[in-house]
Specification:
By secondary structure, the chain is α/β, with parallel strands linked by helices. 47% of the residues lie in helices and 19% in strands. It has one domain (36-221): 3-Layer(aba) Sandwich (Rossmann fold).
Amino acid sequence: MGSTRWFAGILAACAYVSLAVQVHAQPPRAPVSRTTAELDRKVQNFLDAERDQWDYLNVPYQDGRILHDLVVKGGHKAILEIGTSTGHSTVWLAWAAAKTGGRVTTIEIDRGRHERALANFKRAGVAEHVDARLADAHDLVKLLPGPWDFVFQDADKEWYLQYFRDLEAKMAPGGCYTAHNVARPYARQVTEFLDYARKRPGVSFRFAEGASAEGISISCWAR
């Protein structure tokens, strides 16, 4: 009887040690402050509520959706936006960045629009995924080191070609450079930008399908 109990005790001890090893062998789980579903719900509710309220030349809803989908599909993380306005496109980009583990750096020169954008980021729940800069993009773009794997430009059309030239050497392999308002002749420089972008070696060029009449161009670097 004693030997039976002794043997049963050994088996129980072995089982305990085996269980302990299995438990400690599992990698620790990182704390999650907000589930993806909760963030998705909050951002979508914000975008739906504000859908017809955007002014100051923010992008249309469908164009924001295109930008979001491009970032998610490409797994882009280092995202630069030139021209925040009051933040509609930034919210879409930041929502995508939350899914890829990325972050959006966005530049706006007008203080009033910049401050409204900051408030919108908080309301949408994406503020932690945005680095909003109040600055002149003509100067700041040249100073930002990169590399970038996604760029969206929607600022002064006369500077489109210069922005592209300032950033093309800072684009990561597989990165994409997008531009808004390219379907209409806003300025001669927009046409020059499109001609230049089409001819870059190792860079594919196309227009986004399903975009608004304003149009979105997409230039993607080879991996």
